[in-house]
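Re: the 148-residue chain
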Amino acid sequence: MNRQLLGLAAVALLAATTKEEIPVALGCVGIWYAFARGRKKAGLAIFALGLTLTLVDFLVVFGEIAIGTALILGIATRLAGSLGALMMFLFWIAAWDFSNGIVNEQFVYGVLAAVVAYGSAGRVFGLDSLLEKADVVRRTPGLRYVLG
């Protein structure tokens, strides 16, 4: 039982590195509920919720950095623009507030990302034009749809 507690405490400490209070609080409540109350399944479910929130926080930041880097360098511009438009659409849904109308910051960024994806901007200003000359891309024409 001490090994389980040590493992759960280590993951809760990892959750604390995201500097988010909610996942850490859920992790600590889950550990306490699992071991102090003797309700391991319920406590582990609460702990898993905190861990899931930490994972989602990490994936959002990773996606923002990956999409932004790909768009700045012009690598796989069509894919990065499409994923950026999808991410901004999901952010727009999450920030559902029409006090200033239907158009907000996420909506504008999503439209711009869709225009970049549709316009294949990587062929003109990015590294996609260099990547299209590679033998791997010539042998697999499906990669040309991913590149700008």
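Residues 40-73 form the longest helix (34 residues).
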